[in-house]
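Lecture 7 notes: from sequence to structure.

We start with a single chain of 754 residues. Read the sequence below before looking at the structure.
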Amino acid sequence: MPTGPAFRGPRSLLRQIREAMAGGGPVQSRLDMAVRIIAQSMVAEVCSLYLRRASGDLELFATEGLSASAVHVTKLKPGEGLVGEIVRLGRPLNLSDAPNHPAFAYRPETGEDPYHAFLGVPLLRGGRTIGVLVVQNRTERNYGDDEVEDLQIIAMVLAEMVAGGELVGQGPLKDVEIAPHKPEWLKGVQFADGLAFGTAVLHEAPVAPEQLLSDDAAAEGVRLAKAIGDLQGQIDKMMDGQHGLVGASFEVLETYRMFAHDRGWNRSLDEAVRSGLTAEAAVERVRSEHRARLGQARDPYLRERLHDLEDLNDRLLRHLSADGAAVDRQLPDDAILIARNLGPADILEYDRHKLKGILLEEGSTGSHAGIVARALEIPCVGRLVGLRDRVSQGDPVIVDAESGEAYLRPRPDVVGAIQARMAVRAQRRAEFARLRDTPAFTRDGAKITLLMNAGLAVDLDILGETGAEGIGLFRTEFQFMVAEELPRFNAQTQLYSHVLDAADGLPVTFRTLDLGGDKILPYLEAEREDNPALGWRAIRMGLDRPALLRLQLRALIAATNGRELRVMFPLVASVDEFRAARALVDHEVAWAERRGRPAPSELRVGAMIEAPSLIWHLDALLPMTDFVSIGTNDLMQYMFAADRGNPRVASRYDPLSPPVLRALQTIQEACQETGTPVSVCGEMAGRPLEAFVLIALGYDHLSMPPGGIGPVKRMVLSCDREAARRGVAALLKGSAGSVRSEVETLARKLSVVI
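Now the structure, written as tokens:
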């Protein structure tokens, strides 16, 4: 018995299989011919093809060597037998004595008793196993690495031939599960409120290889080597800060570079090309192997590495298509974007009017994708485990961001129910629209000023629609995160001037650059930090790089052109930091005046209270400020020592708990004593129940995402502030944990619309 196939490099075999599958005659005859050719070429006494039915069963579809009467009769449940074991593992199974393997399932109708040597490989398509290809011999032996490699290549090509073109839906293939088709429900986490029903669009979907087999392996090798070299050069430049993937963290870029230069990955691609595949097909083959092997890993680290490899493969495919950067962003009118994760720039590349919802496999409520989705009022659900492997391009999907759920290929009754809920939400939006021009006064006459958080030019289009009385927080860093290089003075000035023009006299508070942490820019040098949330970020970066901060302040002053300027500094942790930052503002105002340029008609400089240290130094800070604003997102993160971007710990604390509420009460009372204007601009301000508590604590300026203004205003109009104050004060006495349920009970008792 030979110890390997009759040849090295299955190019001629693949061509024979392609001709057999493309020929005329019934589909079954073509499958029979294919396994016969494989058996002969692999010097195997048995070759069998199993395909997955829609029921999930693995059915024997064709065989050379086993009993022909077993075809379409032998069926294995998921996980049953050696074939089921291959599907479960997602990788080849190479055995010298198959009958003695614990997973072996004896099926007398097949007549496979004499065969001991067994090699089975999965048929992978899109990371899913749609079948298994098996070769067997009587002799007890292990197949060589070359044979395993060859059979994997054959299985990949066979999978594309079975699943693609005119064969799908014909004869015995009419019920083969090529892609998920059953309704599925996934539970995740709400990132941005809302409901949406539409068509799945895969983010940066890989370019499908138009040709699987190459006629010139050497030429394909040159193409592959050039594309890999271009990819490695691009990633090296990202790491060097010369060119960049916008918004990518240092750790991700470092991982990209590690994998891009990995010899094993490069070798796998090269071997696939030398065996007769095109460069694109080689990438898809290696991708499918990684998906099948790592996709079932329980270790979160391994699953994260799979995601890194996915992105790397996508980028390599784009380099092979001579389009290393551009991505086709064409959308249907009801697009639901499907991705593992997104950066802020990714969402902005899609048509806002066609993008109805977003589903993510990863992420967190405090992620950039979540912030941008809320700003654009696009329903978004994240932390949907296994999402990308369970949905195909064009599938109907539901985004239920009220309850943090996703429905894939939903049943008609589920669609009807979600459409009814969407109609109710539309009625509520109409109600909020009617309240747009109604002043936000509580029932006992307290005026509550509702402001809007912004950071994108598109936010300004809806300022008038929301009824907001101004912009309480404009995040200036988004302009930097969506640019390929540091925005120049004129570009910054133009944006800030546009914001002030759009506000049309309403107050606008600009927050200076809040960079660092998880917001690393590729064109700024940054060192890796063990604790980036506690590291070189926000005002610390601005003070250490005064030229960067001064350029922004100079642009803000120029943009006001004699109008009011309100500017605040993020993450101030000490009075000295604020003093130094304010000195830079005064310096730039003086610089403008010396050159005869208009200074702001009124200058107000404030600090964001996000670091708990300031709570015990308010007596020194407040007299130096014109106003303060509380960033509850970071304040709670630091109070509870829980990274809000880490889904494992982000939900371990509740903003409606005594530590948070007592801290907020302390700040409000100190500001009241000194007459310092104070606002709350974190996510807390945009949720009616939390806003109810803030009003009870004495806050009357709340800044929130656009979608929160209507619901919060409705709550304000139904609220008696004094009664709320007394009720919340009672809850803070002696409470041990979250008081959320008690606050909900209080709101119902006071007839507050939450």
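Confidence is low (pLDDT under 50) at residues 1-9, 241-253, 324-328. Keep this in mind for problem set 3.
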